[in-house]
Amino acid sequence: MKCIAKIGLAALIVILTGCATTQQPYDYTNFKVSNPKSILILPPKNNSLDTKALYGFYSTTQRPLAESGYYVLPISLVDETFKNNGLTVPEDIHQVDKAKLHEIFGADAALYVTISQYGTKYMVLGSASIVTASATLVDLRNGATLWQGSATASSEEGQNNQGGLAVMLVTALVKQVIGTAIDQSHQISKMTNARMLTAGMPNGVLYGPRHPLYGK
Amino acid sequence: MGAKMKSKKSIFLCTALAILLTGCATKSELYSWGNYEDQLYAHFKGEAPEKHILAMESMLEQAKAGNAKVPPGFYAHLGMLYERAGKADEARHMLNMEKQAFPESARYIDNLNNQFKKASTQ
């Protein structure tokens, strides 16, 4: 019995330290002052070699931010609005005046995303689908930068994930789908976005007003 | 007596462990997503709206049945699909549903509705 207790204690310590990865604290001053309720995710810039990256990735950006408690503007309609106004290239869209974006979409903040890697990489032993991106959250009312982050995910990584269960769940789901999916990188994008845009992770975005942990 | 105490102790430890584990894992999702993201991707790739409308409608039913909420943008996206399929009334209804469920969308939805009106009076 004593032995069991000791094992239990050891397990507790492992779990506690596992939950509490210490990193340099992020400066959330601007984020807290801005206190955004709604986020406009702009069509991402695509610096990868794969033209499918833009929408393969864009379609997976909403979920983690919405699940973190923000209202995320409907990306399909947002994309359409830009096209109707003659803006078809993300590089141009990222240059649009912030006050104008605020006026049209009514969003408090905008997320500027850049995809740097998307697709299959052939290596010595087999191949891997890798998706890497970075993002900057900017207040549309005053132009202040609120937050920056980046993440990467690969089809070949082990199940040893950082970022807690929410991310692990997505990873597990994605892994299930991958075998049958035609567009593997679109599935991997879900993992990249979950890591990059889920609140509550070290240096991640803060919780938004629609989440029970908002302000805590 | 002593043995009883010890077993109580181990029960306590087990419970503490369980609480800690679930403490790390309090992340049930706020919304019912279905395969909405894959639907969005298919939409962006230019697939016809009719098939997506069916898939989206069944996701909506599923969410309602499970007493769950559909994610931000879901109603608006379905509205857009209706509009493309020539169902203007359903489209407007869905845009208003979006505004009702998420008042944060009001300004954008109002702008879209104004565009609709302009387009239909031209």
**What is the number of strand segments of chain A?**
6
Number of helical stretches of at least 4 residues of chain A: 9
Shape of chain A, please?
globular
Strand count, sense and barrel status of the largest sheet of chain A are: 6 strands, mixed
Mean pLDDT level of chain B: 84
What kind of assembly state do the chains in view correspond to? heterodimer
User: How many whole angstroms does the radius of gyration of chain B measure?
Assistant: 23 Å
What is the global morphology of chain B?
elongated
- Secondary-structure class of chain B: mainly alpha
Q: Spell the H/E element sequence of chain B.
A: HHHHHH
The main β sheet of chain B shows up as: none
- State which percent range the strand residues of chain B make up: under 5%
Give your account of this protein's structure.
- The complex is a heterodimer of chains A (about 220) and B (about 120).
- By secondary structure, chain A is of the alpha/beta class.
- Helices cover about 40% and strands about 20% of the residues of chain A.
- Chain A is built from 9 helices and 6 strands; from the N terminus they run ααββααβαααβββαα.
- In chain A, strands 1, 2, 3, 4, 5 and 6 form a 6-stranded mixed sheet that branches.
- In chain A, strand 5 and strand 6 form a beta hairpin.
- In chain A, helix 8 packs antiparallel against helix 9.
- The longest helix of chain A is centred in the N-terminal third of the chain and has 18 residues.
- The relative contact order of chain A is 0.18.
- The model of chain A has no long low-confidence stretch (mean pLDDT about 85).
- Chain B is mainly alpha-helical and about 120 residues long.
- Chain B is elongated, with a radius of gyration of 23 Å.
- The relative contact order of chain B is 0.09.
- About 5% of the residues of chain B have low confidence.
- At the A-B interface, helix 1, helix 3, helix 4, strand 3 and helix 5 of A face helix 1, helix 2, helix 4 and helix 6 of B.
